[in-house]
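Can you give me the bound-state structure? Components:
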Amino acid sequence: MSKMARSLFRLLTGCHCFTSPPPVKPHLCHSSTWLLPFRSSFVRTMVALPFSFSLKPRDFSLPNSSWSAEMMRLYDFYSSQCEVENESGEKQRGPWRRVPSYNRTLKYATGGAYLSKFIQSKNRLFTRSIKTTGAAFEYAMFINKEEQRCVCIFQAGHLLEGPPGHVHGGAIATMIDSVTGAHATFLSGPVMTANLNINYRSPIPLGSTVLMESSLDNKEGRKTFISCKVTSTDGAKLHTEATALFLSINVSHLLGM
Amino acid sequence: MSKMARSLFRLLTGCHCFTSPPPVKPHLCHSSTWLLPFRSSFVRTMVALPFSFSLKPRDFSLPNSSWSAEMMRLYDFYSSQCEVENESGEKQRGPWRRVPSYNRTLKYATGGAYLSKFIQSKNRLFTRSIKTTGAAFEYAMFINKEEQRCVCIFQAGHLLEGPPGHVHGGAIATMIDSVTGAHATFLSGPVMTANLNINYRSPIPLGSTVLMESSLDNKEGRKTFISCKVTSTDGAKLHTEATALFLSINVSHLLGM
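Here's the bound-state model for the whole set.
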């Protein structure tokens, strides 16, 4: 591995993913929440480095004014499971972790100078590239380490239209790739999407909030198999179900090192 | 079928799809080029109708300044196959047809007033919802009726990022759904995407132009089976391959009539 790749790896494997910090590795799946971000100690280290770095990138998985009451209800439910009280009334870490979400991938991990070949400043993560809140993808993911499950609450905006008044199949595929990809990364480290097999059961009306549930099916060598269901928030209506296969990769492979 | 649905059907089945007019039916797949637009005679009829109607919606499949030289070369090649000269030097229809592409679906087929329930003016087709040319999906589709084939030239903009410097798997899925959906609609009339099975072989660098080729595998009753390959423009590198299943539907089913 080249010096460049080694430096990148040091940066990446130094990162932690969640607001409360279970260790996590970087995310190279096609979906790309990609580089799941960093706890503050890592940020403090980064500012000492001799290149530009955004200290406080916007976390898109936090509530905004476009979120529906149903979106907020589910967000509050899972958030309340991230920190719970024990018998003595003390707060302690709960079973779920919220996954932050940013509109860039590699840049704020590296600061930009060293890997400038791969950091075109105008690039944006596909699911976070539209600035207007509520117009496109509004979502927040939570991961349950013990149960090896991931959930995502997803509110589909008016710019995601396919059939009149309903969400485009490609937008649904995008969210499935994003959720299963983040989950696979949490479980297996850097991965790439190898296969998505999606069955569309019932169209999703634009503006609605749906629940996405991702679960681990199997791990075999470099392969991580994940299943995902998209349902109404009460679970009564199945909109979409999918399987996904991710391959563990060496980061330097993708970066051409 | 209700009066509303019958009126819609008359509008839809009166539509024709291409710049030169082979008959085509409306497109209800998840992907939604959805309502493939209309030849001028239909437009002339529409302006006589007592509701607002955009006479000249922008056709996004025409070249713009963001298109690369390779994108233009392929566009010119397939365009040149839409009209050819016979032995007497007269121009006549060629084997290919360009498929126009708009940023709305139902609205400009109906004028908006009658089906206002389904026509929220702010809705936009997912692949055409970003206004900045070159930033997201730049593509043009061509259909060969005799060979039952469809090709799409696709240039991926900087807002489609997944892994650093590469196209998001969801954006690739979106284009596959769009191309195979348009193709299935051309072959079978109104359809919905039932399954997409996508194998990602090699990541697509942002900014590059790729060739997408869609071919009919089979038709069985309501089912239309399509295959799609995404390759480098010279065909040497396979990026993605997929199968898609579409189900023929009754338009009124989706619209809840």
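A couple of observations. Residues 169-188 of chain B form the longest helix (20 residues). Chain B has a mean pLDDT of 79.
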